[in-house]
Amino acid sequence: MPTKAELKVKQQPKLRLRQGDKVMIIAGKDKGQIGFVAKISPVEKKAFVLQDNPENPDQPLPLNAVIKHKKAKFQGERSARVKLPAAIHVSNLMLIDPETNEPTRVGRRKEDGKTVRYAKKSGKTLNDKPNITKE
């Protein structure tokens, strides 16, 4: 029989988004922008969304960015304004349907004994393995 402490341990919530998913921001200052999920925190239910940079493909642009002012600490150094990505709540994101390229809701269903995600607009099963390569 489980103890009270074991019963109080919270499980991580299941989210409809995964790292590498193509999403649209549906609320906030960047409403309507399309990007991909770079990092996701299931406990906080927040994600970092980046956008492809056509000028420099190695350095994607942050969506929902905040500006941090960096003060010069030494005499030869210059002060700067640095754009940093800020976390956005997953309720403000909607998955892009891979077939129609439109925002869609995500459902879960059993296929071959496994629970898989699917796009509700097209009914197509989503790829649960992210396409992010680490070097």
Molecular structure report:
- By secondary structure, the chain is mainly beta.
- It has a single domain (13-119), classed as SH3 type barrels (Roll), CATH 2.30.30.30.
- Helix content is 4%, strand content 39%.
- The protein has 1 helix and 11 strands, in the order H-E-E-E-E-E-E-E-E-E-E-E.
- The protein has one helix spanning 4-8; strands at residues 22-25, 34-41, 46-51, 61-62, 65-70, 80-85, 88-89, 93-96, 103-104, 106-111, 114-119.
- The strands form 3 sheets. Strands 1, 2, 3, 4, 7, 8 and 9 form a 7-stranded antiparallel beta sheet that branches. It has a two-stranded antiparallel sheet with strand order 5-6.
- Strand 2 and strand 3 form a beta hairpin.
- The chain is flat.
- The N and C termini lie far apart (46 Å).
- 16% of the residues are buried.
Distance between the termini: 46 Å
CATH class: Mainly Beta
CATH topology: SH3 type barrels
Estimated helix fraction: under 10%
Mean pLDDT: 88
The sequence of SSEs as H and E is HEEEEEEEEEEE
The major sheet is characterized as: 7 strands, antiparallel
How does CATH name the architecture?
Roll
User: What number of structural domains do the residues give?
Assistant: 1
How much β-strand is present in the residues? 35-45%
What's the count of strands? 11
Number of helices: 1
